[in-house]
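Hi, here's the filled form for the chain we discussed.

Project: internal
Contact: R.S.
Residues: 177
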Amino acid sequence: MAHGGRRLRARGDARRRPDGAGLRNPRHARRVAARQLRLRRPEQRGGGGRRARTSHLQPPRAVRRSGLTLLETMVALVILGLVVVGFLAVFQGSTRLARDSERWAEAVAYAEDAMEAVKLDPAELLAPAPVELRGGFERSVETRAWGGDDSVRVVTVVVTLPDGGGHMTLTRLVATR
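And the returned structure, exactly as it came back:
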């Protein structure tokens, strides 16, 4: 030791206090304080003079492994399965609705076709029984006089969807020639 019992320090150490409080970086200050605490004797650290346990007498530490446990994986698979089942149900419902709307559009086309045929020639489609159409549809056409005058007629076309899927009715006034 030189210079009156003081240890020589490096140029940057002149600003530092022994407890690390004067350091600019707080993380570094904590490391310095922890290192100084380790360097003290056990009785100064609050150990009461006890010796540290040797490594073979210490209890085994819990090993932290990164990754998923079997239970976490099973829960994730159950949640994923429920989401997939939900998507399949929505997909099935949208497919059914698309098929039904296609059938209704076809029924409207058959009804419009019959209505146009009645406008061109009213006697052409006057059949008492329903007519079987392609795809399992049935169509019936009914005409009656509107009011007391026979020059205007009410034409009603009923198209029945296959497999009891309902029926579509189209009613219009048609002027006869």
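Let me know if anything looks off before we file it.
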